[in-house]
Write a structure and sequence with these properties.
By secondary structure, this protein is mostly helical. About 60% of the residues lie in helices and about 0% in strands. It is globular.
Length: about 70
């Protein structure tokens, strides 16, 4: 697979479980599992002929902070 997801390492570094992350983000563990595997993002990038950075960017702001 062309895309490697390092979520497990980042969670470990921050002392957080995937279940805790799901609760904070508001997604199901099943959806996090799909993201964690990288398969969905890999397929999206493959069929769009793009890189992950072309479709994902982070501005450092939560939606709640913008209000």
């Amino acid at each position: 697979m062309a895309i490697r997801v390092h979520l497990e390492e980042v969670l470990r570094e921050r002392g957080m479980t995937s279940k805790e992350l799901c609760a904070k983000v508001g997604i199901t563990e099943a959806n996090l599992s799909i993201l964690r595997s990288g398969k969905a993002i890999n397929r999206i990038c493959y069929y769009l002929g793009c890189d992950v950075g072309d479709i994902l960017k982070f501005d450092g702001i939560l939606e709640e902070d913008e209000e």
